[in-house]
């Protein structure tokens, strides 16, 4: 006799709560992921997951810190030797009883206290506050009458000998590198690595120097000025070759090409400069320079007409520009005035934007900035060595910067020595570089 089984009633599916899902993990093959189980130290089992789109009432900083201390005293971590804080472990309560806890840990304070840290102090405001505090501590702009005491560094033995011969060991290594057929690249503190053709152009008389050649050697001069302050003038700034090109491009964009004075609508002391542009005057770029309120002279190499190198020495104590040109031919003054108009008008405007006169240290003879351009003075060709052939203007300009950085007013080299001088500069850049593959 067969017994008929009573049909079972099919009940409608009931929604299962998240706690039931966590408890029934042993009965399911692929349980749904609960964010509370993934982050047990943030979410609590008795509170709902907060919505970031609708922030709740903020908690004062003092209450948040007090709750954090209370939480650290109530909750204890697992002892050494357990599997970790995220796995189930045995915790001891204040009454001495022990109980098993799951990975979702009970917190003694609401979740909002932890999630509202970024809302109380937004990242942008926090970075701005840290930047202002660091700026007051790291720069002498806070109190010009009390400049920061310079850090005393041991001065290694260094002798300024511009006419010394090239070190035989360094010359042998340089020549072996040029004979190398693999053509490995070298890191000379530039954005891009350089190879053998770059060094060959550096030491050849008939070839003009590019911006990269100028910046590589100027970087070495700034290093010497930093580490050998007893030999090189500490109150002299050496700018890179891009500074004049950047000012010239802005001048032509605002005033037009070939203008020797600005438009009437342009106001010198009301021009708005960006933070990137004023970073040069603040001594942030290039590496190795100082804020202009701490120096007296600024040496600026200028690529006049984008074909000829000359040196503009800016005296900040008198507000004057002195042009040293190794060109063998005489150039009309109005032509030089047009080529250096970007320096004559932009430099006073940039100094005024940083309150240059008010930030100079007490006791310095400071030129009072006026609403007029810096005067231009052409140094006599009898005092500046002249080139006899094209291509050596860049090397002459680097030689002038090297002498002026060492506080030398007389220049005692000639065009006949430029072959040895350019080779010596190339060897110095090579010895101060390293293999690009190992950098």
UniProtKB/TrEMBL annotation:
InterPro entries named in the record: Papain-like_cys_pep_sf, Peptidase_C48_C
A GO cellular-component term linked to this record: nucleus
Keyword Hydrolase among record annotations: yes
Pfam families attached to this UniProt entry: Peptidase_C48 (PF02902)
Biased composition (Polar residues): 16-29, 73-107
Statement: the UniProt record of this protein carries the keyword Protease: yes
GO biological process, one term: protein desumoylation
SUPFAM superfamilies: Cysteine proteinases
The organism's place on the tree of life at top rank: Eukaryota
The entry's keywords: Hydrolase, Protease, Thiol protease
Region (Disordered): 1-113
Family as reported in the entry's similarity comment: Belongs to the peptidase C48 family.
Protein name: Ubiquitin-like protease family profile domain-containing protein
Organism: Acer negundo (Box elder)
